[in-house]
Amino acid sequence: MNLEHNLDEHIKRTKKQAKWGCLTWFVILIVAPIVLIVGMFSYEMYFKERQLVTSYSPSEIHMIEVVEKGEAAWFGPSSVRIKYGWWKHVDRSISNDGKTLDFSNVSVTWKNDNEAVVTLYGEEQEPENVEITILKRK
User: Fold this and answer.
1) Phi first, then psi: what are they for 88, rounded to 5°?
2) Labelling 37: which of 57, 99, 107, 126 has CA 20 to 30 A away?
3) Does residue 120 lie within any of the structural domains?
């Protein structure tokens, strides 16, 4: 009787382990690649930065960098980030008929070492001026 009971317990335990093993392999072979692909797609579409323009102030004490964030979704606008100072930025979009942006979509004109105007150009929009003031560090 005891031997039969141990055999039944062993069979139940083996079936339970087999179910967990199948679930684990399902996650490894099916779910993990899907999560990886979605993660890579999201990074490319929303987070990846591609430099368009870097400009230095007349005395080269400050810098403004304009980057494209992600990629334009089909014919939608492209997101750009204007970075300046210590960790400051301004986010804007450029309507460029879904085309990839390049340096010709941005110009930076410095008024002085602390003030600049960033102009954003797109095929489907009027030029947009963004005034940037970089405060002096104390």
Assistant:
1) -100, 150
2) 99
3) yes
